[in-house]
Each structure stands twice: as structure tokens, then as C-alpha cells.
Amino acid sequence: MNPQLQYRIEQFLFRKAELCDAQDWDAYIDLFDENCEYHLPQWESEHQYTTDPKRGMSLIYYNNRSGLEDRVFRLRTGKSAASTPLPRTLHQISNVRISELGDGQLRVLANWHTLYARLGTSEQFFGHATYHLKPVGESWKITRKHMLLLNDTINSVLDFYHL
């Protein structure tokens, strides 16, 4: 893989994490294509997770960006009691691998780890993510974000800003 492309993709993912940690929701949402799919499947067993969000259970599934926009609206208007107050988060991205999908799109695999603090407690979520990115100008738009949460238990609220 081209080292310059590797660097640019890593910087894109780091910027996405930074925007989420800063709760800069407008800039964060702008990274996603209007028709993006956002999926966090549920585990069916110890090693099997649901693969079809229309037939199996998902922890989070949005078939386009409006799902993320709705979550941001609820956060901004105080209509998400479970997310009030919002946690402080620190997203870490590692092990970024890139391959071509065709049509100029890229498939990017990465590991992620999110530390968060809320109401005197600190916890973490971690897992794997697969992104599909399409080039737009000098950057990209996310057309698909698929995550696997590797935590065995979820002790609190789980929302898009944890992932």
C-alpha cells in the first residue's frame, strides 16, 4: 500500500476521533455520506454476530446518515436523558489496514478503543471497525461504518459517540 495513502487515511480516522471527543457534532456528521450505513451488530453467540441488520438484532443500525443526525438532535435538545450529561471520551485508533473496493472506494479496517468518564466512573469500549470510504475532493466521506464491539458486558449507555 502507498505509504502516503496510509498516512492520509490514518489522519482522517484520527480527525474523526478528535471531532467526536471534542463533541464537534456538525464536523463529525459531515464526515459521513448522506447514504452511509452505520451498523453495530449484536452477538448471537460467543463467536457469531448478526450479519443482516434487517433480519438479526443490532445494538445500533442506521441505514443512512439521518440516524446519526437524529441522535445529535436529541443530544443537543436534551431529549436523550440517558446521555445527560454526556461523557468525556478518548478514542484511540490502531492497526489500520487499507484495500481497494473499486469505483475509487477504499475498505479500511481498524481497531478502536474508547475510554470514557461520566458521573464519577470511568469505563471502556473496544473492538474492530470496517469503513468504506469514497474520495471527495482532498478527503473522503464514510459510506459505511461497521463495528464489532468486543466487550462482554455493557455496564452503561452505549451510543454512537462511544464507537
Average of the residue pLDDT scores: 94
In helices, the fraction of residues equals 10-25%
Kindly provide the name of the CATH class.
Alpha Beta
The rounded distance between the terminal residues' Cα atoms is 26 Å
Under the CATH scheme, the architecture is Roll
Main beta sheet: 6 strands, mixed
Beta strands, count: 6
Helix tally? Answer: 3
Strand order of the largest sheet: 2-1-6-5-4-3
Strand content: 35-45%
CATH topology: Nuclear Transport Factor 2, Chain: A
Shape: globular
Gyration radius, to the nearest Å?
16 Å
Unreliable stretches (pLDDT < 50, length at least 5) are none
Structural class estimated from helices and strands: alpha+beta
Number of domains: 1
The succession of helices and strands, N to C, reads HHEEHEEEE
Q: What's the SSE blueprint?
A:
Layout: H1 3-21, H2 25-30, E1 32-41, E2 58-62, H3 66-77, E3 88-102, E4 105-118, E5 121-136, E6 139-149
Parallel strand pairs: 1-6
Antiparallel strand pairs: 1-2, 3-4, 4-5, 5-6
Overview of this protein structure:
By secondary structure, the chain is α+β, with helices and mostly antiparallel strands. It has a single domain (3-162), classed as Nuclear Transport Factor 2, Chain: A (Roll), CATH 3.10.450. It contains three helices and six strands. A six-stranded mixed beta sheet has the order 2-1-6-5-4-3. A hairpin with a 2-residue loop joins strand 4 and strand 5. The longest helix is centred in the N-terminal third of the chain and has 19 residues, at 3-21. It starts with a helix and ends in a 14-residue tail after the last strand.
